[in-house]
Design brief:
heterodimer, A: 325 residues, mainly beta, Methylamine Dehydrogenase, Chain H, four-stranded antiparallel beta sheet, 2 helices, globular, B: 975 residues, mainly alpha, two-stranded antiparallel sheet, 7 strands, 46% helix, WD repeat domain-containing protein 83 (chain A), WD_repeat_MORG1 (chain A), WD40_rpt (chain A)
Chain lengths: 325, 975
């Protein structure tokens, strides 16, 4: 006991909780030259980024250098979403051509092309081990595709949504879907239950929080809501941005401190998660910010506007680069 | 180690050794039979073949021996060289395999059975010794003694391990009495010097010393040697016994068949029993007494009669040499005795042998047959009364000679279950034994009342019935039907309570043609209902006119019963027996079970209105949450590394329940689907404008359809007003004046024309092939160009989009006004609509129909939030919808001038083609007009020609004028 007391006395003072750094300095802009960039995503470790183009291609970029590494073409229409497997060996992408494609990253070849959705596929996600691809489509169904077998049919079809599915997220044992019928559905595989939370406005994007306790959903009533996952209670409501017509992304920062959302007024809005107050309004451009993605570990943000992708960091890089931009 | 290796060298390895198992090696699956291969010793694969794939292929690739097969021997015989007689040995037909170690004629030295058997197997040895003695050359057992391999068979080894010792019998150890016999054996084995008789005495003496609790091994049993006599000696002749001969033993006197074992054993063991005999010299039956002999032995065998049994089944001759082969007479001869038991083997403890034998079976003589017995059975024709109408039945019965009321004792099969029960004296079963027991008293009373009434009626008309029956029996089928009809018409007269249909049914079914009417099962999907219906039908067949009442389920409500009654009657008249006779020839197809059921999710969602209220009050949580049981696919769980939450349930997804599709209750409860259905039926459009054939209605109606409808309903004046208002809100003040100054009928006509224009527009949209087609045609393949072309397309799309749904900020007025300017959408609606329209059918949003105030907005959102436009070339910040819309228009116009000409041309071409198809008589007129607006914007073009079409139809407004007006309008907008 005295020992611990001594230790306590000896212990370093608790470091002051640092104000979380928000990525607000533009590091670089990538001109993707692939039409409108429909979605931009980090890969699993955050060293690369993927941009989904309106010209049917998918491009892989280096985040740090901003160089184009590879172009994946094979879709028949706009690419709408992409996800990277945990080991960076595979990509899955979905498109308006109603297909979901599994890519081999290194060769750029199509490993599997899965048809089955009746409409354009809005969103796609790998599960943790990249054994299943979950895709949500405008036809109101969520399909779970097996990456391990050559079976052309999905493992399971979740057709509970009464309208198009705009967003899907996967956690260890849950599927979170947001659909245009104004409901956030959470399929708990472990419990074998489906929880449907009514939001009353078409959902554009859903997210899990990093701790897995909350779900974030943005809807077309220009509101982002943070719901308690287990009970469905409202924990926070974030407003101020404009999201009335387009499918825009929202996300949480890497440490769950802030809530981020795109806006139709060309800004990215940062709210404090707990207080709900607007902490930063980051101006990206004049057009709609279509997509955004937060780095899994570092304060780095990607935004997509029209044909460009912006990389934002917490600290400015060399002024030269900025000038160049 | 050296010794080890030596040891290994000593071993003969045989076969293929098993591979050593490594510890962490996974268990290998055994090779399946079809995968197993067989190789010969040279490593070639051999195939099994033959009728039952039993044998190997012979020789070289299924030939015998050589490539050429089996060459037949040539027979050559000439004068010089006579062919010798060829003897074929069996070995000539054998190959190496046969001559090999396992073949049928092995050439190598192997251990034969004789040597393989262990020397220690005494019993066998003894048996063999017996044979050896009788063999012409005796003494090979001696040889065997010398050359015996030191090997003991496995069985003996095992027995030894279990505590068996040589010379003992096999089995549990025994108490004293049987043990004596064991002792006898022991004595025989080791104590042969004693003469047999003496041995018994000594044994008795020994008995004294044996304590009570000592057990003994069972007696050993010597198998009797069944060696056939294959020599030519006389019976019982033994030849010269070398031992006896050399040892000088004289003959043992009479050859006792039954005692020879002991003698021989002693002989074999070579102990010197005949000590008193002289040594040396050959002696035997065949030899006389030599000169060296001291005494004259009786060389001539004298047999004494006393050695023979002269009584059948006489005294026990032996010394207890019995086992399972004991001579038969032992068992039969001695009835009394305990000794008997030992022959039968071991008797269970607590049992004794029966002292009296069982009685012999008495055989009874067969019974004497009656005099009139015929050994052939005569089958009496059986009357199935249930399948015949009562009249006919009665007639038949009377004709046969039975009276219907005859209380004749019935046969076993005619009794019903309760009567049979009474006969058997059983108690009645628990529970209600009839349907009527289940009825409550009220219903029962009612039923009995009905029945009574029916009875009375029947009795009153019974004479009539009888007469009718006679007729029916006598006359042919047609006549019978007529009679039945008459009879039933009587019933119809007498009982007015039942509907005419029921009577009809009764008539149809009680006619004799309905004898074998089964088959039609109209209510097969509902077994209970079908059962009730069957009951009703069988009632009908028996002519029971209150069959309907009886068959109905009394637990149902009055209303349900009424309905079912109607259904039954209808079904019965529909599926008449006449058709059923035909139907018997066909097997009914398997009925689709889900024919009239719908699958409905088991857990219903909560009320939408409540949830909306909750959302408005921001009371998220329980109010807004629905929880369902959801079954993930087994494979999905596996892929997620999660145990199946519902192991063993084959269900996937939400559990569903089947509901009757046509059930009234389905319509009473309001489900989501029904509400959408209702919504759709509400929005079912009135007929399109006269003369224009409408294409198929889209599953979902766009806002524009609605506006067209709305304007239809309003009168022209109010329409005009609204239009004016609309204009005022928009940015063209000049247009208002123009519009207002126009005469009322003209504007009305114009607006009408514009409505049609819109209709046209819609048609256009629907009949246009999807965007992909255009893309496939016009888009070039290279990357650079495709991006630029996609830009062009997107512009194009914007144009199209501008023509149909407005953006969210669009004025809520049903803008029946000019379709030329795009409705102000902040950014023009993006992606191609054809695709979306395709998608309309599957995605039927419940929210949109369920939420009236939001209907408008939801309708736009029913396909989900759109995607932002690819780019904003004129980078002005869009702050208000109006400015943005201006911007859009501006941009579009400019682009049109630059780029879109070619495409619009193409489009026009297509449109025109379609129109040609539709209205060929107007083709000329149109083409004239087409030339003029060629260079104006595509939208104005569309409106122009559609206007011209409708103008032709209504004949109200000259198209040129309209065109001019539109042009001026667009010009203003540009400025």
């Amino acid at each position: 006991m005295p020992k611990t007391g001594g230790l306590r006395a000896m212990a370093f003072p608790q470091p002051k909780p640092q104000a979380p750094q928000l990525p607000q300095h533009l590091l670089r802009t990538l001109d993707c030259k692939q039409g409108a960039v429909r979605a931009v995503r980090f890969n699993a470790d955050g060293n690369y980024l993927l941009s989904c183009g309106g010209d049917k291609t998918l491009r892989l970029w280096s985040v740090s250098r901003g160089t184009l590494l590879k172009t994946y073409s094979g879709h028949g229409y706009e690419v709408l979403d992409v996800d990277c497997s945990y080991d960076n060996s595979h990509l899955c992408s979905c498109s308006s051509d109603k297909t979901v494609i599994l890519w081999d990253v290194a060769t750029g070849q199509v490993t599997r092309k899965l048809r089955g959705h009746a409409g354009k596929v809005n969103c796609v996600q790998f599960n943790e081990e990249a054994t299943v691809m979950i895709s949500g489509s405008i036809d109101g169904s969520v399909r779970c595709w097996d990456t391990r077998s050559r079976r052309p049919e999905p493992i399971q079809i979740l057709d509970e949504a009464r309208d198009g599915v705009s967003s899907v997220k996967v956690s260890e044992h849950e599927l979170l879907t947001g659909s245009v019928d104004g409901k956030v559905r959470r399929y708990d595989l472990r419990m074998g239950e489906l929880y449907a939370d009514f939001i009353n406005s078409p959902i554009t994007c859903v997210c899990f929080s990093q701790d897995g306790q909350c779900s974030l959903s943005s809807s077309l009533d220009s509101t982002v809501r943070l719901l308690d996952k287990s009970t469905g209670e409202l924990l926070g409501e974030y407003t101020g941005h404009r999201n009335t017509g387009y499918k825009l992304d929202c996300c949480l920062s890497n440490k769950d401190t802030h809530v981020l959302s795109c806006s139709e007024d060309g800004h990215v809005y940062y709210w404090d998660l707990v207080e709900g107050s607007l902490s930063l309004k980051l101006s990206v451009g004049k057009a709609v910010v279509q997509s955004l993605s937060f780095h899994p570990t570092e304060p780095l943000l990607l935004t997509a506007m029209e044909g460009h992708v912006q990389v934002w960091g917490a600290e400015p890089e060399d002024s030269k680069e900025e000038a160049a931009i | 180690m050296a010794s080890d290796s030596d040891g290994e060298e000593d071993f003969v390895t045989y076969g293929i050794p098993l591979e050593p198992l490594e510890e962490d090696e996974p268990l290998r699956k055994p090779i399946r039979i079809q995968d197993q291969t067989v190789k010969d010793e040279k490593g070639r694969f051999t195939r099994f073949h033959g009728a039952f794939t039993g044998g190997y292929s012979a020789g070289y690739f299924n030939t015998v021996g050589s490539k050429e097969g089996w060459a037949p021997a040539t027979f050559v015989s000439s004068r010089q060289q006579k062919a010798g007689k060829q003897m074929a040995r069996p070995e000539d037909f054998m190959d190496e395999e046969d001559l090999g170690e396992h073949g049928i004629a092995p050439r190598e030295i192997t251990t034969t059975d004789d040597f393989a058997s262990g020397k220690r197997d005494k019993m066998k040895d003894k048996a063999r010794a017996i044979t050896s003695l009788t063999a012409p050359i005796p003494g090979d057992t001696v040889l065997e003694d010398l050359v015996a391999p030191a090997r003991i068979s496995v069985g003996v080894e095992l027995l030894r391990k279990m505590g068996w010792k040589e010379g003992q019998g096999v089995g549990p150890r025994l108490k004293r009495k049987p043990a004596r016999q064991g002792n006898v054996a022991g004595i025989k084995a080791y104590d042969c010097a004693l003469p047999p008789k003496g041995s018994e005495e000594s044994e008795e003496e020994e008995d004294e010393y044996i304590p009570e609790n000592v057990t003994f091994a069972p007696k050993d049993v010597t198998p009797i040697d069944f060696t056939p006599k294959d020599n030519l000696h006389g019976l019982g002749y033994r030849g010269l016994n070398p031992q006896q001969a050399l040892m000088g033993g004289s003959g043992t006197g009479h050859l006792n068949f039954f005692t020879m074992e002991s003698d021989r054993a002693s002989i074999l063991l070579g102990d010197s029993r005949p000590r008193n005999r002289r040594r040396g010299g050959v002696a035997g039956q065949a030899f006389g007494v030599g000169a060296m002999e001291e005494e004259d032995d009786d060389i001539y065998h004298r047999d004494a009669l006393s050695n023979y049994d002269n009584v059948l089944g006489g005294e026990e001759p032996g010394d207890g040499l019995y086992g399972w082969t004991a001579p038969q007479q032992y068992g039969n001869k001695k009835k009394a005795s305990s000794k008997d038991a030992s022959y039968l083997g071991k008797i269970l403890e607590g049992f004794t042998l029966a002292s009296k034998s069982t009685d012999t079976k008495t055989v009874y003589p067969p019974p004497v047959l009656p005099r009139d017995y015929r050994p052939v059975h005569y089958f009496r024709p059986v009357l199935d009364l249930s399948s015949v109408s009562p009249q006919v039945a009665q007639a038949l019965q009377t004709s046969v000679g039975h009276m219907p009321q005859d209380p004749q004792p019935k046969g076993r099969h005619q009794l019903d279950s309760s009567q049979r029960r009474e006969l058997l004296g059983e108690s009645s079963l628990q529970g209600p034994n009839s349907v009527f027991d289940l009825l409550d008293s009220k219903d029962k009373e009612r039923l009995t009342g009905l029945r009574k009434a029916a009875e009375e009626k029947r009795s009153s008309g019974s004479s009539e019935d009888r007469r009718a029956a006679m007729v029916a029996a006598g006359v042919a089928a047609a006549g019978a039907a007529a009679a039945a009809a008459r009879a039933s018409s009587q019933h119809a007269l007498s009982s007015g309570s039942q509907p005419a249909g029921a009577q009809q049914a009764l008539m149809a079914w009680s006619s004799p043609t309905a004898r074998s009417a089964h088959g039609f099962k109209p209510f097969e999907s509902n077994p209970h209902k079908q059962a009730r219906y069957d009951m009703y039908i069988s009632g009908l067949k028996q002519g029971d006119k209150d069959a309907l009442e009886c068959s109905l389920d009394p637990s149902m409500t009055e209303w349900e019963r009424g309905r079912e009654q109607d259904e039954f009657v209808r079904a019965a008249t529909l599926y008449k027996p006449s058709s059923s006779t035909l139907s018997n020839r066909f097997t009914p197809g398997k009925r689709e079970d889900d024919g009239n059921t719908v699958e409905v999710p088991r857990d219903q969602e909560g009320d939408v209105d409540d949830k909306q209220a909750a959302v408005k009050m921001k009371m998220f949580g329980k109010l807004t949450r629905d929880t369902f049981e959801w079954h993930p696919d087994k494979l999905l769980c596996k892929r997620f590394n999660i145990p199946d939450p519902y192991p063993g349930s084959g269900l996937v997804g939400l559990p569903k329940v089947k509901r009757d599709k046509f059930s009234v209750f389905n319509f009473l409860t309001i489900t989501d689907s029904s509400s959408t259905l209702g919504g759709e039926s509400q929005s079912a459009p009135p007929a399109g404008p006269a003369g224009t054939p409408k294409p198929a209605e889209p599953a979902k109606r766009s806002r524009w359809d609605m506006s067209a409808q709305a304007s239809k309903t309003t009168d022209p004046l109010s329409e005009l007003l609204s239009e004016a208002r609309c204009m005022a809100t928009s940015t063209q003040p000049g247009q208002i004046s123009q519009e207002v100054t126009a005469t009322a009928p003209e504007t009305a006509a114009e607006s009408k024309a514009e409505q049609k224009e819109e209709e046209e527009e819609k048609e256009e949209e629907e009949s246009r092939p999807p965007m992909d087609l255009f893309k496939a045609i016009f888009a070039s393949s290279s990357d650079e160009k495709s991006s630029s072309s996609s830009e062009g397309e997107s512009d194009d799309e914007q144009e199209e989009g501008g023509l149909e749904p407005a953006g969210p900020q669009a004025s809520s007025q049903p803008s029946t006004g000019i379709s030329l300017p795009a409705p102000p959408a902040p950014p023009a609606p993006p992606t191609p609509t054809p695709l979306q329209q395709e998608m309309k059918a599957p995605a039927v949003p419940s929210g949109s129909s369920g939420v009236p105030p939001q209907a408008r907005r939801d309708e736009e959102e029913e396909f989900g939030p759109r995607l932002p436009p690819p780019s904003y070339p004129w980078g002005e910040r869009l702050s208000s919808s109006v400015s943005s819309s201006k911007e859009e228009k501006h941009k579009r116009k400019c682009k049109e001038k630059h780029k879109a000409k070619k495409e619009s041309k193409h489009k026009k071409g297509k449109k025109h083609k379609k129109k040609h198809k539709k209205r060929k008589h107007k083709a000329k007129q149109q083409q004239e007009k087409k030339k003029k607006p060629e260079d104006s914007g595509s939208s104005s073009d569309v409106s122009a020609d559609s206007g011209s079409d409708t103008g032709g139809g209504s004949g109200a407004l000259p198209s040129e004028e309209l065109l001019k007006r539109l042009k001026s309008l667009s010009g203003k907008k540009l400025h």
